[in-house]
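Local shape tokens:
==================
===
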Amino acid sequence: MPVAGTSRPVTTLTVHATGPAPPDEVWERYAVPARWPEWSPQITGVELPVDRLAAGVSGRVRGPLGLAVPVTVEHVDEAARRWSWRVAVGPLRLSLLHWVSDGPHGGTTTGLRLSGPAPLVLAYAPPARLALGRLVRR
């Protein structure tokens, strides 16, 4: 399937992690962008004009080597503990949908659905998996 406005095919991949942290705590780690570097080693800083996720907000996320990429939060549903955003890397776009739910035996399961060009999705999946594992730990 092509990315909207281009002829590039889209790859979609979903990753999950389950851990002992309570779902409300995990959601707060998502909902407050300043906290992202605490659990996501690939994020070294966040420049968003809000203290809490809000649909339509745009800014930048800093990663390794000081690389800053433009981001836009597309959707936030606090009650369902779901949110999505779009990341731009040059002409490439990556869409990310995150969710937080009760774990099967307590704790939390969190998931991430990545959609974008295959090389970008496949390169981002391992650090994303690591970050999700850290997100659900106490």
Remarks:
- Residues 49 and 98 are 20 Å apart (CA to CA).
- Residues 11-135 form a domain with the Alpha-D-Glucose-1,6-Bisphosphate; Chain A, domain 4 fold (CATH 3.30.530.20).
- The chain has one domain: 11-135.
- Confidence is low (pLDDT under 50) at residues 1-5.
